[in-house]
Specification:
This protein is mainly alpha-helical. The chain is built from six helices and no strands. Among the domains are: 61 residues; 49 residues. This is CKLF-like MARVEL transmembrane domain containing 8b. Keywords: Membrane, Transmembrane, Transmembrane helix.
C-alpha cells in the first residue's frame, strides 16, 4: 500500500457548492398571499369544517343533511383541486387541456363559450363560473343546514355540531361570494384591456 500523496485535493469552505437541481413541480410562492389565494384557503378550511362537523353526527337520519354533506364535500374537493391548479400554475403550463370546457363542465354550469384569446381570460371566466355556482349552492346548503338544527335536541352533540356547521356554511358562502366578486372584477378588467 502506498501512503497518500501530499497533493491531495481538499474542499474547504472557500469552494462554493451549487445546487443545480431543477423541478417541474414549481409553484407560485406568492399566490397564497393574494386575495384569491387567501379566499381559496378560507373556502377550504371553512368547507372542511362544515363536512367534518356534520359528518361527526348522525346526519344520515335527515335527508336534508345528506344534501349538506354532498355539497360540502363536492365543493371542498373541487376547491382543493382549483387551489392546486392555481398554486402550481398548471393552467398556464398545460395549454393542451381545454381548461374552459373542463372547468365549465365540472362546475355544474352549462355554458359553452368560444374564447380565442389568451389563457388568462379563460381562467378568469372559469373562476367566475365556479365561484358563482358554489355561492348559489352553498347558500342553499347553509339555509338547509340552519333549518335542520331544529331537528336535534338543544344542548346535545348533534345540535351543537349542526349549529356550528350552519355558521361555517354561511361563512363559506361569504367566501365564495367574495371570490365571485374578485373573479368577475378580474374577468371584466381582462376584457377591457383587450
Amino acid at each position: 500500500m502506498e501512503p497518500p500523496t501530499a497533493a491531495s485535493t481538499r474542499r474547504g469552505p472557500s469552494s462554493p457548492q451549487h445546487n443545480t437541481s431543477t423541478s417541474t413541480l414549481a409553484f407560485d410562492q406568492h399566490f397564497t398571499s393574494t386575495a384569491k389565494g387567501i379566499l381559496l384557503l378560507s373556502e377550504i378550511v371553512c368547507g372542511m369544517l362544515v363536512w367534518i362537523l356534520v359528518g361527526g353526527t348522525d346526519y344520515f337520519h335527515l335527508p336534508a343533511l345528506s344534501w349538506v354533506m354532498f355539497v360540502a364535500i363536492v365543493f371542498w374537493i373541487l376547491t382543493v383541486c382549483l387551489f392546486i391548479i392555481y398554486l402550481t400554475r398548471a393552467h398556464y403550463r398545460l395549454p393542451q387541456i381545454p381548461w374552459t370546457t373542463l372547468v365549465t363542465c365540472t362546475k355544474l354550469t352549462i355554458i359553452e363559450i368560444h374564447v380565442k384569446s389568451y389563457m388568462t381570460k379563460c381562467c378568469f371566466f372559469q373562476s367566475v363560473c365556479f365561484d358563482c355556482s358554489a355561492t348559489a349552492l352553498y347558500l342553499v346548503t347553509a339555509v338547509v343546514d340552519a333549518l335542520s338544527v331544529n331537528q336535534a335536541i338543544r344542548g346535545r352533540h348533534n345540535y351543537n355540531c349542526w349549529a356550528a356547521s350552519a355558521f361555517f356554511a354561511f361563512l363559506t358562502t361569504l367566501c365564495y361570494a367574495a371570490s365571485s366578486w374578485l373573479s368577475l372584477h378580474a374577468w371584466k378588467n381582462s376584457e377591457e384591456e383587450q
